[in-house]
Amino acid sequence: MSSTGAGILFIGSLIVALAVTHRPLGDYMYRVYTGTRHLAVERVLYRLVGVHPEAEQRWSAYARAVLAFSAVSVLFLYAFQRLQDKLFLSLGFPAVPDHVAWNTAVSFVTNTNWQAYSGESTMGHLVQMAGLAVQNFMSAAVGMSVAVALVRGFARRNTEDLGNFWVDLIRGTVRILLPIAFVGAIVLVAGGLIQNFAEPHTVTTLTGGQQAITGGPVASQEIIKELGNNGGGFYNANSSHPFENATNWTNWIEVFAILMLPFALPRTFGRMVGDRRQGYAIAAIMGILALTSIVVLTGLEIAHHGTVPQAVGAAMEGKEVRFGVPNSGTFGAATTLTSTGAVNSFHDSYTALGGMITMVNMMLGEVAPGGVGAGLYGMLVLAVITVFVAGLMVGRTPEYLGKKIGSREIKLASLYFLTTPVLVLIGTALAMGSPTERASMLNTGPHGLSEVLYAFTSASNNNGSAFAGLTVNTPWYDTVLGLCMAFGRFLPIVFVLGLAGSLARQAPVPASAGTLPTHRPQFVGMVVGVTVILVALTFLPALALGPLAEGIR
Amino acid sequence: MERLPSWIRQHLAALRALLALTLLTGALYPLVITGIAQGLFNGHANGSIVQKDGKDAGSALVGQLFTDANGQPVRKYFQSRPSAAGAGYDPMSTGASNLGPEDIVDTLPVSGAKDDKGNPDTGRQSLLTRVCARSKAVGALEGVSGARPYCTPDGVGAVLKVFPAVGTPTRAVSVNQACPAAPFVAVYQGVKVECGKPGEDYAAGRTVAVRGTGTAVVPADAVTASGSGLDPDISVAYADLQAGRVARERGLAADQVRALIERNTTGRGLGFMGEPAVNVLQLNLALDRLRR
């Protein structure tokens, strides 16, 4: 079979697997978030936290709980890193420097997992396992909680209640993330990933050299890193490292784990609002955007335009032999379409236009299918904007799922959408305006701008992948990118929960002849169009100076 | 407790939630996984360690350098891909080169010049020049042509800076070829091509990469660094290219070496995942075992 043919089968098999899991997993998550029963372990957790699981929260209380949990998480993770040399399993590493610790704490709590450090030379096993990997679970569970709260806003009527954040957080962790991660981790060890607590073990190589074989609880962290769309690698080389991604088939498992939950959540949404067709429409929008991106990116990498790829004869720089070019491109698309940011090949060395697609994926706001939970709420905000645009065209008050989209709703949706472009473009401009920050670029010319633009796009959209040539472990980048990650995560969450609160208060309006049906291909096409046009209008100038200038000649 | 302001109570609840969930997902979960992994897949869980003469010699999953103390290839061993991990295949410093697809202009070293730390100026090789130099070196080692598109015969990137940037050329410089090298083309659009003078700033010129007529014999993976810097594999094509040299060095029949390559090749998973890959360390170990 040709390499391209195998690459097509790789994508096709992922589509089949996602279609198979979409229904059962989506239905399962529906039962998790709407069920009334509590597991014994959950009761214990509620007692420890001191919450009444039956008590409901209005939107502001829900938002305060999210922010309190995240703030405590950042402080805890910061302190953990600063004190690692005093704790066990630190491998002799010193305390993490303050600006790196701040950046990393924010990064993991916001589901970004941007890494200004190298795992193997900075973090001890304890911080990785009981600090960073915990936030892999938590930030994913928080994302799903916020998404579910928004869906409740659509599904409920005449109420202030959006559910209970602590219940959603604990159920998401205990019933969804942990069981899947448990099975996945064992499968990955079967593929060759390591799972131990050893210190680096020096061996003498065949030619008499020295090589340190590293240890660590990698498999347990690797699976949740993909499943929770986190992306922070145990090692600097992330999922290209043989201990993180050992074989051609663990690579498939990891791409599937990235896409599994985000593509099942539309089903959960459809069930919760009582109309499965709405869920199919959202899944279709995500699917169209995702498949287009995956095919285009994989195709561009196979075509290997550009001087160096042409000289080499393949876009092999920064890629592993066992994965090959097509599967590396597919991983690159999946990781940036979601908020994952794990990499099995290095985006900085992709072809110019292939690298641009990874950026465009993030600029879409990571909605196709987006981060765990974050993708669903992002897509629902875009659906709200689309019915608003459609309503403007025919002069009707727009409505979505029976809820009127009035001025408060559209203001919140617009603020949501504007947050990340403001952070990305202003951040990039600040960095490019300063000679010190420009000096962090590894590459020159348009590719250097791409590195900086990528960094701010990745941080603000909570992706975490990088054009890794950029030197970012400087106080300035650590601080500013940390702020981008925090604002890029929590401002949208507050807007989404505000939107959920005002939707839940409304009584649904009955559908009439003038109502725009939101489950038909027409609506699917409109949301796709609105998404692409909004992103193109916002980011085309910046892209023209970076990857387009480099790739089109 | 009840008298605390509500925002403090909320943060205390958050802290209790975090600690409880840390216990569950940050201690219990990884420990149970470790227990199961160590029990069921002991070899994998501990790094797929391989031994030679009863001593640990590396990991089957982690590539190695097969070079001597001077960095020269040890001719009886199959060679790994280029690596950007530290000084090469260093697991304490994993990663890629991160150089972009249009990184094609070198900074030539100025002889006698020192950097901030007082070290002699080494210049900076572009990704293209690295590719060309590796191709030439591999070609020489294996006794085949090391030529590639966009590469000069002396193994650097075939790149001209043409002045003025717009309009009819009046001056052309082969910027990656330090004087007194003979430029890879004598004349560009009627203008005589000069060699590159170290230290001279050619940034204002238009960059023209010249494809040339060379076709590559040396495979792509032999001239590129991997993402991890620890790639344990090479392509089947690169293994085949090295087979003749290794067979000669070891006095083996070519078929014998080919058979070992085949035995250490992993095909695509289920026939469609990834690419066929030859594990270099396993292959070299198999060769060493053969000799006894």
UniProtKB/TrEMBL annotation, chain A:
Keywords recorded for this protein, A-Z: Cell membrane, Ion transport, Membrane, Potassium, Potassium transport, Transmembrane, Transmembrane helix, Transport
TM stretches of this protein: 61-80, 87-109, 129-155, 176-198, 249-268, 280-300, 374-394, 415-433, 480-503, 523-544
Cited InterPro entries: KdpA
Domain of life: Bacteria
GO molecular function, one term: P-type potassium transmembrane transporter activity
Cellular component per GO, a single term: plasma membrane
Cellular localization per UniProt: Cell membrane
Membrane topology reported for the UniProt record: Multi-pass membrane protein
PANTHER family in the record: POTASSIUM-TRANSPORTING ATPASE A CHAIN, POTASSIUM-TRANSPORTING ATPASE POTASSIUM-BINDING SUBUNIT
Subunit field text: The system is composed of three essential subunits: KdpA, KdpB and KdpC.
Similarity section: Belongs to the KdpA family.
Function: Part of the high-affinity ATP-driven potassium transport (or Kdp) system, which catalyzes the hydrolysis of ATP coupled with the electrogenic transport of potassium into the cytoplasm. This subunit binds the extracellular potassium ions and delivers the ions to the membrane domain of KdpB through an intramembrane tunnel.
Protein name, UniProt field: Potassium-transporting ATPase potassium-binding subunit
Phylogenetic lineage: Bacteria, Bacillati, Actinomycetota, Actinomycetes, Streptosporangiales
Encoding gene per record: kdpA
From TrEMBL, chain B:
Pfam family, one: KdpC
Spans through the membrane: 12-32
Keywords: ATP-binding, Cell membrane, Ion transport, Membrane, Nucleotide-binding, Potassium, Potassium transport, Transmembrane, Transmembrane helix, Transport
GO cellular component terms given for this protein: plasma membrane
Positions of the UniProt region annotated as Disordered: 89-126
Main location: membrane
GO molecular function, one term: P-type potassium transmembrane transporter activity
Localisation: Cell membrane
Membrane topology (UniProt): Single-pass membrane protein
InterPro entries according to UniProt: KdpC
HAMAP family from the UniProt entry: KdpC
Quaternary data: The system is composed of three essential subunits: KdpA, KdpB and KdpC.
Function per UniProt: Part of the high-affinity ATP-driven potassium transport (or Kdp) system, which catalyzes the hydrolysis of ATP coupled with the electrogenic transport of potassium into the cytoplasm. This subunit acts as a catalytic chaperone that increases the ATP-binding affinity of the ATP-hydrolyzing subunit KdpB by the formation of a transient KdpB/KdpC/ATP ternary complex.
Family: Belongs to the KdpC family.
PANTHER family in the record: POTASSIUM-TRANSPORTING ATPASE C CHAIN (PTHR30042), POTASSIUM-TRANSPORTING ATPASE KDPC SUBUNIT (PTHR30042:SF2)
Name under which the protein is recorded: Potassium-transporting ATPase KdpC subunit
Higher taxonomy: Bacteria, Bacillati, Actinomycetota, Actinomycetes, Streptosporangiales
